[in-house]
Every structure is written in structure tokens, then in C-alpha cells.
Specification:
There is one protein chain. By secondary structure, the chain is α/β, with parallel strands linked by helices. The chain has ten helices and ten strands. Helix content is about 45%, strand content about 15%. Strands 5-4-3-2-1-10-7-6 form an eight-stranded parallel sheet. It has a two-stranded antiparallel sheet with strand order 8-9. The protein is globular and about 50 Å long.
């Protein structure tokens, strides 16, 4: 299907893929996951370092070679257990280590992005939380550059208001710290208040990003999409796209109309099925617009 899109003159500036190994291969290796992603016709995979960094440095060259051979773009998702705003110095130290290790090993695997949830607010004043997170992210970015680890740090828009990571905070962070850009999780943005689910709202998010970071940022987006269940406090859990009210067709239409480039990673429990659904839906929308 990629070839058909290219022959039409539309191109295929977005790559679609799974968060972690496709669920149909649950428990399989990253090498097998990359091969399955390509077999499904997808073009990206996010290495799921969410519980631990489960690739040894000596294994990383094989992962990179497999991804390069099959033309699968890699990113990495750091541990879920990160809180840069923790009142515990030990937890902050461990959080920083987890981000840095995901970045280091991800880079050895060929990933150019590491995604992470930055932390929790703990009833602290918003500006104080921002300054604490900014300080740690800036230091981590500096450490990685000094080590020659050229990877983009992408704090993610979060699904609960108690978490650091609304759009304004992440755009400001990307303006303030070199080597940082946001990961736009549209399911999380929707879950925060049950809003952010119309084409106008999707377009506003992307326009705000372009205004804050320059139009080139829209040619290198990193987007998460999944079905989502939410309540008064925000995100409850990820669900398959067909079971969710997320307006993913509207989102894909906006991405196609604005000719946004980059990656769309699916975090649904049925990540492989939903990633293929997103890819094929986007191709149809893109073809109709050409």
C-alpha cells in the first residue's frame, strides 16, 4: 500500500507503528517484533522499556541492523516509574537514571527519540513543578549530548491533571531546553477533561506546536494514539480504538490535510490491529485529498 500512495504523488510522510512488540507476538523478542511490524505493512516500532531496559548493549547492534534492513523507524519509551518532581531525592535519582538508560540503549538500537512521563504535581505550585522538571530535563539533555547520545527527549502529554505534562508546559519546555520536543498523545489530551476530540481542536494543538517551535516541528512529530477510557480525574486505561470515543478519523484527516510528517505510534491493547487500522484509514483519507 505504501507503493500505491507514492505512485499517486501523495507520498507517505507519516510512519505508523506499535508501542512495543505487536501484541500478536506477545513475549517475542524485539527482532521478531520488528519483523512482524514490517510484515503488517507498518513502518515504526517503539521499544517498550516501560518496566526495564530489556536490551543489553551487546544486543543493540542486532536490533539496529534489523530495523535498518527492514526500514522500520525506532523510538523508545522509558520506564513508567519516573517522577522528576518526587519529594524523595532517591526516587528522583532513580528516575533520571531510567530516562538516561532508556536513551543510551535506545540510541545504540538506532532509536532517535525517547518518550517519558515526567512526573506528578503533588499539590505543588505549577511554576515550581515546571522549574523542577525543567532543571532535571536540561541536565539530562546535557549529559546525553556530552556522551554523544544524539537522541531527542520527548516528554509526553499526560492523561491525568495530577501529572505534569499539559500541552503548554511541554511546548514551553521544548522552547527552553535544547534537544527536547513533546510527544503528542492525543488519547491523553482527550482523557484529561473529555474534550480535545474535534478536528478544530486537533488542528489547534498542531498549530500551537508550529507557532511555539517553528513549522519544522510539524515535519518531525511523534504522536501516540489509542482508544482510551477516562473519568472525572482523567485517564483510566487504554482500550482498543473501536471501543473508544476517540475521533481518530478526524485526527488523521487533520494530519493529512496539514501534511504533517513523523510517526504515529499506537498504544492500544490491540496495538497491531489498531496500528494497521490507523495506517489504512490514513492512506484512504490521504488518497481522497490528493
Amino acid at each position: 500500500m505504501t507503493g500505491a500512495a507514492e505512485r499517486s504523488g501523495c507520498g507517505a510522510p507519516l510512519r505508523f507503528g506499535t508501542a512495543g512488540v505487536p501484541r500478536s507476538l506477545s513475549g517475542a523478542s524485539h527482532l521478531d517484533g520488528i519483523a512482524e511490524v514490517r510484515r503488517l505493512g507498518l513502518q515504526a516500532m517503539e521499544l517498550a522499556f516501560v518496566h526495564r531496559v530489556n536490551v543489553r548493549p551487546d544486543q543493540a547492534p542486532d536490533v539496529q541492523a534489523q530495523a535498518h534492513r527492514l526500514d522500520v523507524a525506532l523510538s523508545a519509551h522509558a520506564s513508567y516509574y519516573i517522577n522528576l518532581n518526587s519529594p524523595s531525592a532517591d526516587k528522583v535519582k532513580a528516575s533520571r537514571y531510567r530516562v538516561l538508560q532508556a536513551a543510551r540503549v535506545g540510541y545504540l538500537c538506532g532509536a532517535d527519540t525517547v518518550v517519558f512521563h515526567a512526573g506528578w504535581r503533588h499539590d505543588d505550585a505549577p511554576e515550581r513543578v515546571y522549574q523542577v522538571v525543567r532543571s532535571h530535563v536540561a541536565e539530562m539533555s546535557h549529559i546525553l549530548r556530552e556522551e554523544g547520545v544524539h537522541i531527542c527527549l520527548r516528554p509526553e502529554t499526560t492523561g491525568k491533571q495530577a501529572q505534569f505534562g499539559d500541552l503548554d508546559e511541554l511546548l514551553r519546555l521544548a522552547q527552553d531546553v535544547p534537544g527536547v520536543r513533546p510527544c503528542l498523545d492525543f488519547a491523553h489530551l482527550h482523557a484529561r477533561q473529555g474534550l480535545m476530540n474535534t478536528e478544530d481542536e486537533f488542528e489547534q494543538v498542531l498549530q500551537r506546536m508550529g507557532q511555539a517551535l517553528g513549522s519544522e516541528a510539524l515535519q518531525d512529530v511523534h504522536i501516540h494514539v489509542s482508544g482510551i477510557e477516562y473519568g472525572a480525574r482523567g485517564e483510566i486505561r487504554h482500550v482498543p480504538l473501536p471501543e473508544s470515543d476517540l475521533n481518530y478519523r478526524g485526527l488523521l484527516g487533520v494530519l493529512a490535510r496539514l501534511r504533517v510528517s513523523g510517526r504515529v505510534i499506537c498504544e492500544s491493547p490491540t496495538n497491531d490491529q489498531d496500528a494497521v487500522l490507523l495506517w489504512h484509514t490514513w492512506l484512504r483519507i490521504r488518497s481522497d485529498q490528493c
